[in-house]
Amino acid sequence: MPNAYFTDEERLKLVDAARRLLRLTCDITLPGDIAKVRRIIADGIEQQHCPRDRFGINPVIHNLDTALLLCEKISPDRNMVLAILLFILCKSEFIEEKELVKEWGDDIARLIRGLLKVSTLYAKQAAMESDNFRKLLLTFAEDIRVIIIMIVDRLAMMRAINHHPDEKMVHDVAYESNYLYAPLSHRLGLYSIKSELEDLSLKYTNRQTYTEIAHKLNQTKASRDAYIAEFIAPIREKLDATPLKYEIKGRTKSIYSIWNKLVKQKTDLDHIYDLFAIRIIIDAEPEKEKSDCWLAYSLITDMYQPNPSRMKDWLSIPKSNGYESLHITVKGPGDRWVEVQIRTRRMDLIAEKGLAAHWKYKGIKSEETLDAWMNNVRDILETAETGPMELMKNMRMDFYDKEVFVFTPKGDLFKLPYGATVLDFAFHIHTKLGMSCTGARVNDRNQKINYKLRSGDTVEILTSPQQMPKIDWLSFVVTGKARNRIRQSVHEMENRASILGKEMLERRMKNRKIDLVEATLMKLIKKMGYRTVTDFFNAVAAEQIDINDIIEQYAAIDKPVETMPDKVSAEEFQLQPVSDDSRTSSDILVIGEGIKGVNYRLSKCCNPIYGDDVFGFISSEGVIKIHRNDCPNAANIRQRYPYRLIPTRWSGKVGEQFGATLRIIGNDDIGIVTSITSIINKESSTSLRSISIDSNDGIFQGFIGVGVSDTSALNTLIKKLKTVKGVKDVQRSK
To answer: Are 692 and 673 a contacting pair, CB within 8 Å?
Structure first.
C-alpha cells in the first residue's frame, strides 16, 4: 500500500493488525479474498478514496481494528469482515453497487447497504439521546449483523480516541456510546463489550472520577480476574466431591458499575460488597432444586465467612417478578467481600430471559417485541458452535414497521404512525404550523401536504398566512391530533361564516323593512334543500345564493294561494265521510249463486277493492262481510267458521271507488309529500282520502288512504309513486 498515506506508527499497526486478522480468518475466507481486498484498498488509497475522517482517524487502520474486534469478541465471519473492510470504498463511491454485487455477492452488498444507510443518520446531527434515534437506527439497519458491526466499530473508535486533542468530539462520542451502544450490547449479551464501552465512556467524560476509582482499587482488571480465579478454585474442589452437576461463572465489577453504585447508594468504596461476584448454576431435578442450592450454600459458608446482613433468600420466597436465587456475601482471600449467587438452571433461565430478565430489574427500558427478538439473537450468539452470524442472515428487524421517524432541519427526531403525511408532521410540531401548512421541503425537494413520510426523511414545513384548513384534509391525515384540530378549525370557520351570512341577510331585510320571523325562515331553508341553518348561512356568506332571491321567496312563503290539488298540505286531507258503510249487492258483486239485493260490507281489516280475490263471511250480525283471500284474518275464519263462508266474486262491471291504504317510506326531503299528493290527484280514477306522515332521523314513513276503482288502478298508482325521488318503498297495507 502507498507509504505516504500512513505514518510510521500507523504502518506498524497495519502490519500487526493484518497478520492477526489473517490468522483469525484463515479458516473462513475463500482463496484470494484477502489478496483481492488488499489490492482494491491500495487502488482506493492511490486514487484518494480513503480520506481520513473529520477527527483525523485513518479509516483503513480503524476498519482493520473493527474486523479484529469482531473476530476476537464475537465470532469470525467472512461476509461481515469483508463488509467492514470494503465499506469506506463503497461510501466514497469507489466501488459501485453493481460491481459490489458482481464481485462479492448479494449478502456482502446487503450488509454494506445497511451500513451506508445508517451512516446517513449521523450526517443529520440528530439528538442521539432520543429513544426514537435508537428505534430509527434499528429500522435503518434492517439486519442485526449491521448493528453488531456498528457496536464493534464503536468500541474500536473508543479505544482509538484516548488521547485525541478534540475534547468535545471525545466527550460526544463517549456520551453516545454509553447511551446508545452499551445498552444494545447488553441486550445482545455482549457483556464484555458493554462493560468496556461504559468504562471508557466514564473515563472520557469524567476522567478524574475514573482515575480515583481505579487508584482505590489499586489493581488492573487482569489482577481482579486472577483474584476471582483464586476464590473459585477451592469452591470448585468442594463441589466436585459432591454429586452436583454445576457451572461457575465469575465476574469482576467494572469501574463504571462501581461508580454507578457509588452515586446511587451515596456511599464509598468500602461499603460496596459486590466488587467481586460469582454465580453457581446447578443442574437439578425439580424436586431437588432447593436442597441442592442449600447444599452448595453450606459448602461455601464452611470455607468463607458469610455476612448475615447481606444474605438474600429468594428461594423460599421468590420475588414478585418470578426471580429465584440465593445470594450470599462472604469474606474471601485478603478479607475482600465477594457476592455469591446460587441458583438452578431453570431459575437462571427465568432470571435471564423470563419476567426477571436482567435489563428489566436493572431499570433498562423494555419493549416486549424487541426483548423477545433480542433474546433469540443472544441465544444464537451464546449457543451456536460454529458460524452464528450465518444463522442471522434472514432475521429481519421489522418490529418498528408501523412507525416512521423523521428529522427537523436542526436534527430533532420525531416518531409518527406509519402512513403519516407532511400535514400530520406539521400538526405534530405545533397546531399553528399545521393550520398554515402549504407543503414541505423533504430531503431538499418540494413535496405536497399529502406526501407520505418515510423513516429518515428530513422535513422543513412550508407555510403561508393565507392558508386555511380545509375539510378535505381529513381524507389523508392519520394522526388523531391532526384530525381533531382540522375538524375544530373548520367548525369554527363555518360558525364565523354562518354569523356573517346571518348578519348580511338581516341587514338587507331591514333595509327592505321586512321582519325576520324564525319559523318562516326555517320553512324557507327546508324548501331550498339545506340540511342545517349553518349550511344555509354559509352559502349566503359565500354568495352562493342571491340574497334578493332569498327575500322574494321568504315574502311569498306565507302568502295565501289558490288550493290546487297538487298543493294541498297532507294535514288537510281527511277520510271522506260515508253515510252508511253498508251496501247492497248490485251488478258489482256476485254473492253465492247469484243472490242479489243482500246487504254486505267491505271488511276494514283488508279493504278489498275491485279485482281482488275475495270471499264472503256471514257475521253474527247477519251481514255478509267481504274479505280478500290474503286477508290477515282469512286463515282463522276458514278454520273456525267454514260453515259461514259464501263464495263471492266480482262481476264484469265497475261502478264505484274502493278505499285502499298504502304504506310509504322515504327520505324526509323538502317537497316530497307535495310530489306524492300531486301524482295521486292527477290520476283520473284515483282520489286522496287521508294521509298520515311521521318523520324521524331524516326518514319518513306513513299511511296514505286512497280511493281507486280497481286493483289495476292501484298497481299503476304504486308504480308511479315509487318513481318519486326520495321514495324508498310503497306497499299496499293489509
So the answer is: no
Q: What's residue 328's pLDDT?
A: 93
Asked if residues 81 and 67 have their Cβ atoms less than 8 Å apart, the reply is yes
Stated length of the chain: 734
Q: Which of 44, 118, 122 has its CA nearest to residue 88?
A: 44
Give the other-Cβ count within 10 Å of 59's Cβ.
21
Element (H, E) at 727: strand 727-732
Euclidean distance between CA atoms 476 and 402, whole angstroms: 17
Alpha carbon of residue 478 to chain centroid: 10
Q: What is the mean pLDDT of each run of 10 residues along the chain (734 residues)?
A: 76 90 88 89 89 86 93 86 93 90 91 86 59 66 82 93 88 87 78 88 91 74 78 92 90 78 74 73 92 94 91 87 86 88 86 45 45 53 50 51 79 84 92 91 91 88 89 89 87 80 84 82 83 82 82 72 39 38 55 64 82 83 83 85 83 68 81 80 78 75 82 86 85 78
Sign of torsion over alpha carbons 607, 612, 613, 617: positive
Whole-angstrom distance, CA of residue 364 vs CA of residue 358: 9
pLDDT of residue 40: 92
d(CA 418, CA 133): 16
Residue 696: count of CB within 10 angstroms of its CB:
8
Q: Please state, in angstroms and rounded to a whole number, the distance separating the CA atoms of residues 173 and 55.
A: 11
Determine the pLDDT at residue 270: 60
Asked whether 326 and 314 are in contact (CB, 8 A), the reply is yes
Strand-pair partners of 312: 327
Closest CA relative to residue 315, chosen from 282, 277, 271, 270: 282
Under 8 Å between Cβ of 256 and 201: yes
Instruction: Please give the backbone phi and psi of residue 210, each rounded to the nearest 5 degrees, phi first.
Output: -60, -45
Cell of 668: 324526509
Euclidean distance between CA atoms 94 and 86, whole angstroms = 10
CB 137 within 8 A of CB 118: yes
d(CA 190, CA 475): 47
Beta bridge partners of 706: 660, 688
Query: For residues 540 and 505, is the Cβ–Cβ distance under 8 A?
Result: yes
Provide the residue type at 234 as one letter: P
pLDDT at 176: 86
From CA 314, how far away is CA 13, in angstroms rounded?
51
Q: Alpha helix locations (H) across 384-517?
A: 422-429, 431-435, 480-511
Q: How far is C-alpha 581 from the chain's CA centre?
A: 71
The CA distance from 220 to 227, in Å, is 11
Task: Give the pLDDT of residue 235.
Answer: 93
Helices (H), 161-205: 167-176, 182-187, 191-205
On whether the CB atoms of residues 464 and 452 are closer than 8 A, the answer is no
Q: Which helix (H) or strand (E) holds 657?
A: none
Burial class (CB in 10 A: 0-12, 13-18, 19+), 401: exposed
Pick the closest to residue 691 from 701, 699, 682, 683 (CA basis).
701
Query: Tell me, what's the pLDDT at 85?
Result: 94
Tracing cell 487502488 back to the chain, one arrives at 43
Q: Which residues have CB under 8 Å from 333's CB, separation 6+?
A: 227, 230, 231
Instruction: Give whole-number Cα distances, 691 to 570, 573, 664, 698, 724, in Å.
Output: 6, 6, 10, 19, 17
DSSP E strand boundaries for 206-353: 245-252, 276-283, 305-306, 312-313, 326-331, 337-344
* pLDDT score recorded for residue 441: 93
Among left, alpha and beta (phi > 0; psi -120 to 50; other), residue 594 is left
